[in-house]
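EI: anyone free to look at a 84-residue chain?
SC: sure, send it
EI:
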Amino acid sequence: MNQIVNICKALSDETRFLIVSKLKNVNELCACKLLEIVECNQSTLSHHMKILVDSGLVVARKEWKWVHYSLSKEKINELINFFK
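SC: here you go
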């Protein structure tokens, strides 16, 4: 139950909700692409991504100096099953 609450808190911010909605349509996105989508500075994006990753909803994968983000299919399914 606590994980579901953390996911809902993470999604309560409009910017983080936008990020998740963009990630649902792709396999993964680089942080540089997310910066273009949400139109914020790098430190603000990092803050939002930390919250999403800490909630378990988003997975981060580092490749050289870039970080790629994707949705956790497991957490999405947990969230869906909770609301069913």
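EI: Strands lie at 29-30, 58-63, 66-71.
SC: 👍
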